Amino acid sequence: MTRTKQFDEKLLRLLKIVSPGTDLREGLELILQRGTGGLIVVGDNEKVLSVIDGGFQINHSLTPTALAELAKMDGAIILSSDVRKILYANTQLVPDYLIPTDERGTRHRSANRMAKQTGVPAIAISETRNIITLYYGENKYVLKNIPELLRRSIQALQTMEKYRMTFDEALTELDFLEFKNEVRLFHVVNVIQKGEVIRTIKEDVEHYIVELGEEARLVEIQFKEILGNAVEETEQIIKDYAKGDIRTTVEKLDILDLNELLEINTIVESLGYEPKPENLDLNVFPRGYRVLSKIPRLPRIVIENVVSSFGNLYNIIKATPLEFTEIDEVGEKRANTIKVELERLKDKALVRKRY
User: How many CA atoms lie within 13 A of 10 on its CB side?
Assistant: First the structure.
């Protein structure tokens, strides 16, 4: 997992805490409406308690109204780590002033330093700029308003839908060519490129859904409908065609940004081939993972054993039921099922291509 992804996961966990529909978010919105500003620390570990001074202990359940009322005071509010209680109010934060920060306002500088020094999230609500800023570790994130999030979500879903349509078309072509044993590297790269773009957009939309909280219901329904099994199909194709280590290939593709994914040579190189134009015309042969995974109730261990025994999809298709029975975990009944299902999938691919 990359360092960026680790930070993204931390941010997503924090966004769930402050998403619309939570008591904390409702309290933050009330503070914005009243224009008082505020400084909130979410956590009460020893590091936090060692850098607060004064104020008074509350130890009361968190409610939006209580949070907004206490924010009228100049000091910071300390919440419990599970965000269920308000522990302290009107307290002064005294983090190490030598900790570097690019923030300008007093609240934001304190929040930034607290997050860096204690490792717990801190929230600064600006009374002049009308924004909520989250600080976590070395990072910060400005909360977007709901209309802006919905606009971005719709835009991302529209883009995903366009790529999903071209992905399905390319996948239909690949299905047909795999059973004809006529796949070229270009066909594989074409599908993977679109699938990886869909995966990248998927991560953006998932982020929006978390940040939207209970406002994300319609977005989530559309998202699931459009996404379907595109990511899983792409992963299986990578597993079928990666020239080197499969995990390494997945990791290489995983760290590519959207602009890099739009470069065909980047995909070619990630799959383990030299990025030469002529290599796009290379005949390539699927191992058979993706097609075998479409056979109902076929265990993963059986798929692995079949691929290991025959090497590629072409040999798997040619194999007789008797040859299948020689593989571990494959009896006569399962061997016949595999053979029948492969014929069914082949017929389906040929029919789809025809129409």
Answer: 18
- Report the pLDDT value the prediction gives residue 6, as an integer from 0 to 100: 43
CA proximity to 163, closest of 222, 241, 225, 230: 230
pLDDT at residue 282 is higher than 80: yes
- Between CA 71 and CA 53 the distance in angstroms is 17
Residue 25 pLDDT? 96
Question: Phi and psi of 175, rounded to 5°?
Answer: -55, -50
> Using an 8 Å Cβ cutoff, are 253 and 191 in contact?
no
In DSSP notation, 261-310 reads HT-HHHHHHHTTS---GGGGG-B----SHHHHHTSTT--HHHHHHHHHHH
Tokens of 209: 């859904």
- Which pLDDT score, from 0 to 100, does residue 321 have? 94
Phi, psi of 13 (to 5 degrees): -65, -40
- Phi-psi region at 308: left, alpha or beta (left = phi > 0; alpha = psi -120 to 50): alpha
Calculate what percentage of the chain has a pLDDT beyond 90.
88
The phi, psi pair for 225, rounded to 5°, reads -65, -45
Q: Which residues contact 305 (CB under 8 A, 6 or more apart)?
A: 327, 328, 329, 330
Closest CA relative to residue 76, chosen from 47, 115, 37, 102: 37
Take residue 191 and report the two structure tokens written for it. Answer: 């599908």
The full DSSP string for 229-266 is THHHHHHHHHHHH-SS-HHHHHHHHHT--HHHHT-HHH
In the block, residue with structure tokens 């997050």: 115
Q: How far out from the chain centre does Cα 269 lie?
A: 24
Range list of β-strands (E), the chain: 38-42, 52-53, 56-61, 76-79, 85-93, 122-125, 132-136, 139-142
Provide the whole-model pTM: 0.86
